[in-house]
């Protein structure tokens, strides 16, 4: 209830009292020719009621004035806080209509294209931006108003401090207006570009390290080959060649990392395939003599996991090539790796003559089996000899894909 309404009700109450009072008074004749009013109880009741109404209206009037002043003070405080918030807010905020006209605009700390707040209201996007920028922003605005979905776009624009890249986040207000927050993301984009450049530089350095390690291993292999040529004892020469093949297995890993786009992991299937194919060449084994069947899951693993697995495969496949098929016997070798959940099962088998009766991998004294046992423990693998014709070795170990 406002002050004008309270005043009107007060006047009506006074008028009512004066109109009702004569009607409720008793007329008495004190002398011929004269009349007097005597106040009856009804009149006193009317006067008391009027007084109560007047007091209530006066109280309501005072309360309304206090409430109005309080609301005005609260509104002023809220408006002051909102204005302070907008001044402190670093982003530019504007409301734009469907036709591209600016309705409201708060410049923030960095005005868009150097536009002052008083020079934007009522103007159109096409008046303030270049044709290409205006067309892109208008298209985004149209899309937001038509679909009701929020959109984000990045655009390079001119500012008082040179060219800056702004990120526009546009949200619909109603069917004909949208609110947009424009944030300066120039520094963020520069930081991201710097991080990408540093990452690429780091990856290039890592690849170079692996490339040099691979070259050094090749040098070591060549030195061993030269040394083995000077050996007269055939057994010693074979041992040197086995060492050379182990070095090659390590060199293949570094070569794969060097060629890979992801330096943090390698494809285990590709690694095992390269080991087996190079063993065929090194041992002069033709497919007609011994066929090779590879069934290896394509899974990326860490180099620290791939290297032990590769050395184990090297030992097992080398043993099959060299000892499983004596004389001119022919046969086949299978290498299978299956990933089931977090567990990888690696099986290397052949159709050759098999291992001696009572053979135990844990008690074997050859360097090859010592390496297999040691590397199996390193990766937490369970080592098993499977029954049946030929030789079949199975390793089961946990594996985290990368």
Shape: elongated
Described by strand count, sense and barrel closure, the largest sheet is: 5 strands, antiparallel
At the first level of CATH, the class of the largest domain is Alpha Beta
Look at the structure and name the CATH superfamily of the largest domain: Histidine kinase-like ATPase, C-terminal domain
Mean pLDDT reading: 79
Instruction: Work out the helix count.
Output: 9
Following the backbone from N to C, one meets helices and strands in this order, namely: HEEHEEHHEEEHHEHEEHEEHEE
- Uncertain stretches of 5 or more adjacent residues: 23-32
Based on helices, strands and strand pairing, what is the structural class?
alpha+beta
Q: Count the beta strands.
A: 14
Q: At the third CATH level, what is the topology name of the largest domain?
A: Heat Shock Protein 90
User: Per DSSP, what share of the residues sits in E-state strands of 2 or more residues?
Assistant: 15-25%
CATH architecture of the largest domain: 2-Layer Sandwich
The percent of residues in helical segments reads 40-55%
How do the strands of the widest beta sheet line up side by side? 4-3-7-6-5
Count of discrete structural domains: 4
Could you tell me the radius of gyration in angstroms? 47 Å
Q: How far is it from the N-terminal to the C-terminal residue, by CA?
A: 72 Å
């Amino acid at each position: 209830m406002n002050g004008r309404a309270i005043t009107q009700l007060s006047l009506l109450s006074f008028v009512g009292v004066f109109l009702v009072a004569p009607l409720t008074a008793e007329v008495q004749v004190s002398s011929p020719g004269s009349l007097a009013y005597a106040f009856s109880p009804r009149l006193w009741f009317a006067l008391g009621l009027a007084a109560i109404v007047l007091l209530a209206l006066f109280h309501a009037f005072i309360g309304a004035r206090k409430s109005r002043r309080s609301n005005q003070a609260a509104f002023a405080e809220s408006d002051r806080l909102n204005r302070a918030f907008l001044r402190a807010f670093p982003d530019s905020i504007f409301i734009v209509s469907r036709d591209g006209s600016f309705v409201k605009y708060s410049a923030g700390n960095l005005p868009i294209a150097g536009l002052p707040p008083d020079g934007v209201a009522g103007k159109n996007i096409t008046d303030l931006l270049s044709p290409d920028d205006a067309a892109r922003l208008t298209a985004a605005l149209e899309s937001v108003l038509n679909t009701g979905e929020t959109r984000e776009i990045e655009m390079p624009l001119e500012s008082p401090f040179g060219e800056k890249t702004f990120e526009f986040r546009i949200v619909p207000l109603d069917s004909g207006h949208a609110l947009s927050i424009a944030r300066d993301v120039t520094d963020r984009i520069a930081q991201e570009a710097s991080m990408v450049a540093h990452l690429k530089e780091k990856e290039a350095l890592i690849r170079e390290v692996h490339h040099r390690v691979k070259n050094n291993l090749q040098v070591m292999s060549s030195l061993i080959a030269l040394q083995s040529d000077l050996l007269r004892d055939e057994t010693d020469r074979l041992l040197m060649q086995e060492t050379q093949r182990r070095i090659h297995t390590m060199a293949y890993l570094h070569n794969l990392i060097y060629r890979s786009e992801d330096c943090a992991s390698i494809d285990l299937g590709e690694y095992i395939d390269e080991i087996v194919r190079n063993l065929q060449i090194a041992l002069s084994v033709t497919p007609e003599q011994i066929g090779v069947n590879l069934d290896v899951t394509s899974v990326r693993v860490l180099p620290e996991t791939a290297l032990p697995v590769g050395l184990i495969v090297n030992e097992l496949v080398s043993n099959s090539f060299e000892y499983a098929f004596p004389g001119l016997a022919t046969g086949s070798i299978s290498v299978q790796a299956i990933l089931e959940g977090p567990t990888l099962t690696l099986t290397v088998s052949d159709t050759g003559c098999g291992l001696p009766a009572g053979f135990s991998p844990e008690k074997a004294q050859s360097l090859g089996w010592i390496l297999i046992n040691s590397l199996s423990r390193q990766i937490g693998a369970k080592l098993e000899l499977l029954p049946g014709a030929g030789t079949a070795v199975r390793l089961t170990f946990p594996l985290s894909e990368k």
